[in-house]
């Protein structure tokens, strides 16, 4: 018996069987493409839900929503500059806008109060990180888990005097340490309901003064060393005004939008990973 004759080949099948196999392969390919498209749509829906929650919180705090978009780009830039994995930094860009989502649960009388808080009001305000983590932390989706971590930890201080858990140093998640710095810088340089914006020099001086106290000293050094590029990135985001969908796309979305609007692409985009 010749073993070569036992090997199946196309000539062994009836034309109808071959046609059926081809249809099955076509169907499998179509199902695979439909599955991937469905997963992409689910991922987009998750991102959209994140943004809508974050936007609701920012609107309550008298902001247009531009702050949370800047936060995403700046957090990614600082993460990459500090040597973080590119995939993690990409996820942080999408999660960072959720840092203050817990403000949804804070009464307007406290949230929008000009000036300082009474002790009882401060206690209410200090609940917003835990509220945000509770909103986001029920999900098993990695993006939501990182967003919950950011929400809970971005008001912790390097010296352990922050809130809500009073953890210190490297016990604070890296995501929270990064977001704390970029949130402080960006919030200081924008008008708030209770004060006018600081200029960039004042904001950078404050970061420097809080190095090793409120903020991770190495991350502060990293930000200060790249402050020109970070400010250029912020200014580019302000000029281009990317949507959250373009924030999800990352640098590519910012570059494409800049070209489409004629704004150009400058050192602000290059700050990512500089």
Average predicted confidence as pLDDT: 83
Count up the helices.
14
The SSE order reads HHHHHHHHHHHHHH
Question: What's the name of the CATH homologous superfamily?
Answer: Hypothetical protein af1432
N- to C-terminal distance: 69 Å
What's the assembly state of these chains?
single chain
Strand content: under 5%
For the secondary structure, the number of strands is 0
Shape: elongated
Strand count, sense and barrel status of the largest sheet are:
none
Which ranges are low-confidence, i.e. pLDDT below 50, for 5 or more consecutive residues?
263-269
**Structural domain count:** 1
CATH architecture assignment? Orthogonal Bundle
The helix fraction, in percent, is 55-70%
Spatial extent as radius of gyration: 24 Å
CATH classification class: Mainly Alpha
Query: Structural class, please?
Result: mainly alpha
Q: Remind me, CATH topology? A: Hypothetical protein af1432
Topology summary:
Blueprint lengths: L14 H46 L5 H16 L4 H10 L12 H4 L7 H7 L2 H9 L5 H12 L20 H15 L11 H10 L7 H9 L1 H14 L3 H6 L1 H11 L5 H4 L4
Helix pairs in contact: 2-3, 2-8, 2-11, 3-7, 6-7, 7-8, 8-9, 11-13
Structural notes for this entry:
The protein is mainly alpha-helical. The chain has a single domain (3-270), classed as Hypothetical protein af1432 (Orthogonal Bundle). It contains 14 helices and no strands. Helix 2 packs antiparallel against helix 3 (86-95). Residues 263-269 have low confidence and may be disordered.
Give the structure's gist in a few sentences.
The protein is built from 14 helices and no strands. The chain is mainly alpha-helical and 274 residues long. The chain is elongated.
């Amino acid at each position: 018996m010749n073993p070569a004759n036992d090997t199946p080949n196309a000539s062994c099948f009836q034309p109808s069987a071959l046609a059926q196999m081809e249809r099955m392969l076509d169907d499998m390919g179509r199902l695979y493409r439909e599955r991937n498209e469905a997963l992409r749509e689910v991922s987009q829906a998750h991102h959209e839900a994140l943004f809508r929650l974050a936007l609701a919180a920012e609107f309550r705090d008298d902001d247009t929503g531009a702050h949370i978009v800047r936060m995403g780009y700046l957090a990614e830039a600082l993460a990459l500059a500090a040597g973080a994995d590119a995939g993690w930094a990409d996820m942080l860009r999408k999660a960072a806008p959720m840092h203050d989502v817990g403000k949804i649960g804070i009464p307007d009388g406290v949230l929008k109060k000009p000036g300082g808080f009474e002790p009882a009001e401060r206690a209410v305000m200090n609940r917003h990180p835990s509220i945000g983590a509770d909103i986001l932390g029920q999900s098993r989706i990695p993006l939501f888990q990182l967003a919950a971590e950011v929400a809970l930890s971005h008001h912790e201080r390097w010296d352990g005097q922050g809130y809500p858990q009073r953890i210190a140093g490297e016990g604070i998640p890296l995501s929270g340490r990064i977001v704390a710095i970029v949130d402080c810088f960006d919030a200081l340089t924008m008008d708030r309901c209770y004060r006018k914006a600081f200029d960039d020099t004042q904001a950078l001086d404050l970061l420097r003064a809080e190095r090793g106290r409120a903020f991770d000293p190495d991350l502060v050094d990293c930000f200060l060393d790249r402050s020109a590029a970070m400010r250029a990135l912020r200014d580019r985001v302000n000029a281009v005004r990317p949507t959250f969908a373009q924030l999800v796309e990352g640098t590519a979305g910012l570059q494409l939008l800049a070209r489409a609007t004629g704004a150009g692409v400058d050192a602000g985009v290059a700050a990512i990973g500089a």
